[in-house]
Each structure stands twice: as C-alpha cells, then as structure tokens.
Amino acid sequence: MKWIVCMAVAGCMGAAAAQEMDMTPPAEMKEMAWLLGDWKGEMTFTFGEQPVKSTSKAKTTMGVGGRYVVSHQTYDMMGSAMGGLLLLTYDTEKKKWAFWWYDQMSAFPLEFTGDFTNGKLVGTSKPAPMPGMGELVYRATYEKRSDGKVGFVLETQTGDSWVTLIEGAYEKENK
C-alpha cells in the first residue's frame, strides 16, 4: 500500500513540475524556417583520392513541439543508399545553436554547437573518434543561398586549417 501512495505523490509532483516548466520552443527556432521542406541536391564527397558525386534528398520539419528542426536525409554513395538524421535546436542558456548528426556508420552522433550569422549556420563538433584516425573535429556549415537553395559544407580540422570532406547544394522541391 505504501508504494501506491509513493507513486501517487511522485505523479502529482511530476505533474506540478511540468506545469511550471516553460514548454514553449525558443523564439530563435523561427530563424530556421528556411530549412523546412523537401529538398533534393548533389553532394561531392572528398574522403579519398578521387571526389565522389552523390545525389541527396532531405525532408525537414519542425518536431518535438517545435523545439527541434528534424531532417531525415538520404543519399546515394557509389550505388549504396545511406541515411542520416539531423536534430537542431537553440540553447537559450548558452545562446548557441546545438545540433546532432546521426548516420548508419556510427551508433553515436556528432555533436555540434555554433552560431547563425548572415544566413549561415556554422557549428563545430566535439572531438569524435574516427577508426584508424584518432579523434577528429568537424565544422558543418548550412548556408541560405536563396528562398529555395541551401548550401552545405562539412570540413575536418587538420592542424590550424580546415579540409573539405563534403560540399553540395540543395534545391527545394515543390516550391
């Protein structure tokens, strides 16, 4: 009987805490409306000696009550279908954008923080392990080129410079 009372008290406390929490998405989330929609694009991967071209699609929506931009992405890399997931939000305490990239090559996301200035969202990752290469730091840039075009660049840090790994552009479908 005691556990029933404890569960009831805990449930009431949880409901009271939820009522006090502000579940309104950060106002800054409106700044990312340009990323929403269905996109198609072409990417160039420069991981090896020869650049590899790829086609790509993205379906980007607001999710989790408007607190996150959620982008499901697919691309064709040398005849193999690949997929990824981007989650993006604004951290009101740090005054920074936070985003995570998940793909099927790893069980763990790349975690980025950054800023949105002059139509560019630029984030730098925490060091991430890369098999055979140690820990790498990445920089991802999403650039609003127009209402229907977005540019993307992924770079890795080598010493004091950045080396481009992926570069491409997306066009909005069904404008």
Question: How is this structure best described in words?
Answer:
By secondary structure, the protein is mainly beta. Helices cover 11% and strands 58% of the residues. The chain is built from 1 helix and 12 strands. It has one helix spanning 2-20, and strands spanning 37-45, 52-63, 68-77, 80-91, 96-103, 110-117, 120-125, 128-130, 134-136, 138-146, 149-158, 161-172. A 10-stranded antiparallel barrel has the order 1-2-3-4-5-6-7-10-11-12. Strands 8-9 form a two-stranded antiparallel ribbon. Strand 2 (52-63) and strand 3 form a beta hairpin. The longest helix has 19 residues, at 2-20. It is globular. The N and C termini lie far apart (60 Å). 19% of the residues are buried. Mean pLDDT is 88; it is low at 5-9.
Write the SSE topology:
Blueprint: H1 2-20, E1 37-45, E2 52-63, E3 68-77, E4 80-91, E5 96-103, E6 110-117, E7 120-125, E8 128-130, E9 134-136, E10 138-146, E11 149-158, E12 161-172
Antiparallel strand pairs: 1-2, 1-12, 2-3, 3-4, 4-5, 5-6, 6-7, 7-10, 8-9, 10-11, 11-12
How is this structure best summarized?
The protein has about 180 residues and is mostly beta strands. Helix content is about 10%, strand content about 60%. The chain has 1 helix and 12 strands; from the N terminus they run αββββββββββββ.
Topology as H/E string? HEEEEEEEEEEEE
- The span between the termini is 60 Å
Strand order of the largest sheet: 1-2-3-4-5-6-7-10-11-12
Averaged pLDDT: 88
Helix tally equals 1
Determine the structural class based on helices, strands and strand pairing.
Answer: mainly beta
Poorly predicted spans: 5-9
Count the strands? Answer: 12
Computed Rg: 20 Å
State the helicity in percent bands.
10-25%
Largest sheet: 10 strands, antiparallel, barrel
